[in-house]
Fold this sequence. Notes:
The structure holds 2 protein chains of 2 kinds.
Chain A: H1 2-32, H2 39-56, H3 61-84, H4 93-114, E1 134-137, E2 140-143, H5 144-166, H6 168-178, H7 180-185, H8 190-216, H9 222-226, H10 228-238, H11 244-264, H12 272-290, H13 313-333, H14 336-362, H15 369-383, E3 385-386, E4 393-395, H16 396-418, H17 422-440, E5 447-449, E6 452-454, E7 461-463, E8 467-469, E9 472-473, H18 477-499, H19 502-512, H20 514-519, H21 524-550, E10 552-554, H22 560-574, H23 578-605, H24 610-629, H25 638-651, H26 653-671, H27 677-706, H28 724-733, H29 744-755
Parallel strand pairs in A: 4-8
Antiparallel strand pairs in A: 1-2, 3-4, 5-6, 7-10, 8-9
Helix pairs in contact in A: 1-5, 1-8, 1-10, 1-11, 2-3, 2-4, 2-8, 2-10, 3-8, 4-22, 4-24, 5-6, 6-8, 10-11, 10-12, 11-12, 12-17, 13-18, 14-18, 14-21, 14-22, 14-23, 15-16, 15-17, 15-21, 16-17, 16-21, 22-23, 22-24, 23-24, 25-27, 26-27
Chain B: E1 4-13, E2 16-22, E3 25-26, E4 31-35, H1 42-50, E5 57-62, E6 65-66, H2 72-77, E7 80-82, H3 95-109, H4 118-129, H5 144-157, E8 162-166, H6 174-191, E9 194-198, H7 202-208, E10 211-216, E11 219-224, H8 226-230, H9 233-240, H10 243-246
Parallel strand pairs in B: 4-9, 4-10, 7-8, 8-9
Antiparallel strand pairs in B: 1-2, 1-3, 1-5, 5-6, 10-11
Amino acid sequence: MQTFLQYTILGLAIGGSYFIAASGLVVTYTTSGIFNFAQGAIAMLAVFTYWQFRWGWNWPAPLALLMVLGVLAPLLGALLYQVIMKNLRGTSEVTKIIVPIGVMLGFQALATWVWNPTSSTPRQFQKFFGPNAFVHFGSLKVSWHEIIAFVIAIAIAVGIRLLFVRTRYGVAMRAVVDDPELLQLNGGRPERLAMISWAGGSFLAALAGILIQPMIGSAMSAGQLTLLVIDAFAAAMFGRLRSLPRTFAGALVIGLTTTYVIAYFPSKWTWSSSFRNSLPMIFLFIVLIVLPQDRLRGATVLRLRERFRMPSIRTAWIAGLVMMVVVFCLKVIMERTAVNTLTLALTLAIIALSLVLLTGFAGEINLAALSFGAIAVIVVFHFGTTGSGTDARTTLWGILLAAVVTALVGAVIALPALRLRGLYLALATMAFGVFVSRMVLTERNERDIFGFKFTIFTAGQLAIPKPKIGPFDFNSPDSFLFLCAGLFVVIGIGMVYLRHSGYGRRLAAMKDSPAASATLGMSVVRLKLSIFMMSAAIAGIGGVMMAAQIGTVNSDRFDILLSLSLMMITVVGGIGYVSGALFAGIFLIAFVQMLDLSLKKFAVDYSSLEAIFLFFVSAVTVLPATIGITMGKNPSGAVSDIVEGLDQIKQSKPLMFTLIGLEAAIWGLTAAEVITNWNFVILTLVNMLIVPVVGGKILLARAMRGVPKPMPPELVGIDRPFTPEDLAEMDRALNLEGVVIPTMETVREETSGVSA
Amino acid sequence: MSLLETVDVKVKFGGNIALNDVSISVEAGSVTGLIGPNGAGKTTLFNTITGLQPLTAGKIIFNGKEVTKEPPHKRTRMGLARTFQRLELFTSLSVRDNVRVAGEIRNRWSFRTKRMDVNAETDRIISLVGLTGVADREVGEIPTGQARVVELARALMIQPTLLLLDEPASGQTEEETEQFGELLKSLTRNDGLGICLVEHDMALVMNVCETIHVLDFGSMIASGTAEQVRNDPAVIDAYLGAPESVG
């Protein structure tokens, strides 16, 4: 009985903290329409900052609390809204999801940079009033910290409820989401309200973080705290991101169940701690299944800022051919390690293709592409290889089986969420990703399942050999490079064909207007399901290729944060384009690695500037997130910019041939080992990317200068005087052609004639 | 038996009653008008008929079958099509592909024997409604008046028996509206189509509609022929304001 009470109180305290974080999510979502994926990351930053003040610099607790909760956290929230989130009005749901994820990844990288996780002394984070501050109720011993956590949770629940229902402010806040323009007409200030709610949401996140960190007991970890957002959104989902009382109930249920699992599951069940960590995800799935179907809505924004032009099939074939030639030329001049990097980049690009298919073509979101890769890799490891030692190979059947299994798993994951809006599917996949990381990839013990002795993730790592398909052995690095490049090209061209087919048009219809599609008789769920399965299968194949390239993979390779980065960078590249996927793979692997290596090399070469170069090495880790955050400004992606620039170059043949000639010369010099690979990369970047894009922009600007912008007819005569053509046009329209209208002069002449 | 009947349809948004016991009927082979001032509940009624808006109470009967609980796509498959007042075009497709994809969607759910040659039918419908000149343009580039015609063409592709048109003529020139009226008449006459038309252009409504229902603040205030409705005092009040508020 006493243990029961003890754990109940702990459960209530943890549940209360979940509620605080969740209420922050609800408040920001209801006022700005943006789901704050960075909620956990804000909590994490707050915990680290508080630690720095309180134990790093030995400030007294009240001062540290005031600084973190009273000043820094609200300031951060307000800034986030003003600088970043405000720009997201009128963008697609995808951009609204990606930008906060960029913020989340940025904070995560920032924290790892500032508070080095490998430092020698582990950072201890203590409960309020120290670890030994207890209250005794009879034989029951309860820590002050837990009481404080629960009391604050109740206070906040009551406080927010009163704010929303009783005050003018709260009513205005609820009005912001429904119709910001109408609110503005009625004298409300939606932007300011949204900013205040973000400040409040950030405060709540920080508070939740500081309360929960000492209760989950383990050492401070940036990753674990960042994923607090998932526990919070599982709770928020109980209330459909709206109702606070239901969110409160949901948070308590999650808090209590997780503590009871620890207390009462037999200790011989080695999986109970993974199970405990996965509970919020399991709850989320149950809630998603139970939630009633959303009303079909039309497009909420009239015209999105994103536009993707589909390349013709002919263009796709040419691009594919060019890519194979380029890969071949690169292979000739590259060192072994560089070939490996390129191959790895291409395997990631294949995984990114699954995102282009799902998000770019169908408008649905998968935030856990690499987790599907992990499922496929597990299948191949157990059922898809032949031979052993250096003769081991992955079979074609193994890869196909893996694709089928991932597609089926994808169906199971997606089915509950497909009836709902895109955000819910995104959350479901993210929950799945965390579930795979915490529950599946930690399965290192042998289990007896229906008589089969089976270990899912043997010894924490899986060896995946290179594939052998029919008579073709892809064991050598070069042949495997061509296999991956070929696979990318084939899937990419296949996708362009698909987009030009009836199926592709139906996808576009579903993405552009679910309401119109349904009133044309389309069953949206079946179409969504089929595309999700197809996309999962591609992610699976890409995952197997990635594992085969690395050789032996551990669970870190499938981390949810990597999936999120990949999604974000694909959106940056251009989620509607096959080339956007290529951009993502190359950027995430090759470009970041190249920057990192070069900077480190510079730091060694120029030791006097070492500090500066090492600073930039760390800055590179924040780079992808920073780029992701800028998506609010340019939602069509970087590739479309490059393509636009290249289009202009194509207009001017001599310029185009000069550039290609130059590139051939650069390649020739490198092949003859006159210039180094490093210089080759720099020169190529300048020649093929910077010159065309910048040059194209200049050409475009010059071409536009000669052409005056067409003026809307209602502004003619106001913004510019009527021209004779306008007057003639009006005469024609009014049937006044040939009629001489008297002007002041003629009238005056006539009247003067009369008087004379 | 009417092609479509709504029986005492009621819709509440929170405390607001958007539709209060509205009963209308639409006959095959004729155009039925649905008019009323802004906010009267016309689009909401369309949404309940197509299944995009759940009812608080009441019944929808289509082709003699109650469809009140059927999802939108099932109702469409029984022969119900509509256009939207706030345009719901497929903005990443061209005008032709907007029309074509509707046929492709239809071929997915229609019986094998009733499948159409989508390309031929697309060309026929596009020339029927007069979009040939803009067929290969991006749908986002054409003027609103023509974009509404694209919605009509798309709805015709599924070969409906009942067509709900939500302000199809707004944004059209006078001349275009006249042609549009002739098109509606020929559709009802030749194909036996039932059309329910929400429109503010009274000339068009009076010209094409055999029966007119008038909504005001969610309630039906009149219904009858054009002549009856035009002279109904309640209708005149709703449109011009009651005499006391004028005085």
